[in-house]
Amino acid sequence: MNKETIVSHRLDRDVWKTVVKPGDYTMVPYEDSRCKIRIWHVKCENKDGPCEVEPECRIFNSPFDGNVIIGDMDSFVDRDVELVLQQMCLGEICDARFVYKNVFGDLMLQINCRIELVDLTEEQLISDWSWARLFESAVHHKERGVKLVKEKRIVDGFRRFSKALKMLVAIEPVDRLTADPERTKELLNMRIKLYNNMAHCQLQFEEYGATLDLCSRTLKLDPENIKSLYRRSLAYSGLCMYEEAWGDIQRALEVDPNDKASIAKAKELRPHIERINKDYSDVIKKMFG
């Protein structure tokens, strides 16, 4: 009997598989591979007994057509199934076990199932992808991320933006002396959009340090980017760095005096700046009375 092996481990979850029937070891899924799978003997439970899987999960909810593109899943359960598939061979059948716990070690969800990798369209490694394919993939992940953020799935959206950025990194470095100017401009604009989108996601969780970093990266590429100036101002405000926040929002208003969000933020910041100026003035009076 084959031994159960660990596929992936974190403190809050474990993914296991047991090979039931070996497959063709010369054919395995890579990023973007098209897989046809069959799943049966599905059993979902938590500490209270049988349960349903989250509705965002595609593979374990109806309707599922058996088609999976590696790297194109958003639900955490679906992504873990991808991890199992990437350790399977064409024709292989395995028993998979997914165990999820909370910070106290309580069982939140366990899924047991049998998976068969029925068919597989082999793909090149990302390192062998063409510029056009990498950029197309970046656009796909960025657009999917925007849709997820609109659905309030911020973490999943951020993951898509990060994936799109990974595709851009795979394209670079670009030789600006020989590169097509339009191509270089496309790369620059995409990177700016991704930094801005990722900063927006970080702000939703009050991750102000990460927001500052992302906005500062954008402003190095585009010093007059209003979205980055505004979001960096929000991050500075969250850290009570009101003078820095005021500086960014004033720069944003210089670029567009009619930007409503920047106008509102300036009104919010003004009392803080007036208090800081008054405190400074009082100190000077005491020093030189």
Automatic annotation (TrEMBL):
Instruction: Kindly state which keywords UniProt assigns to this record, in alphabetical order.
Output: TPR repeat
| Gene3D superfamilies found in the cross-reference section | Tetratricopeptide repeat domain
Q: Which InterPro entries match?
A: FKBP4/5/8-like, TPR-like_helical_dom_sf, TPR_rpt
Instruction: Give the TPR repeat ranges.
Output: 192-225, 226-259
Record's PROSITE patterns?
Answer: TPR
Q: Does the keyword Phosphoprotein apply?
A: no
**Is Mitochondrion tagged as a keyword?**
no
Q: What is this protein called?
A: Jg23090 protein
Q: Name the species this protein comes from.
A: Pararge aegeria aegeria
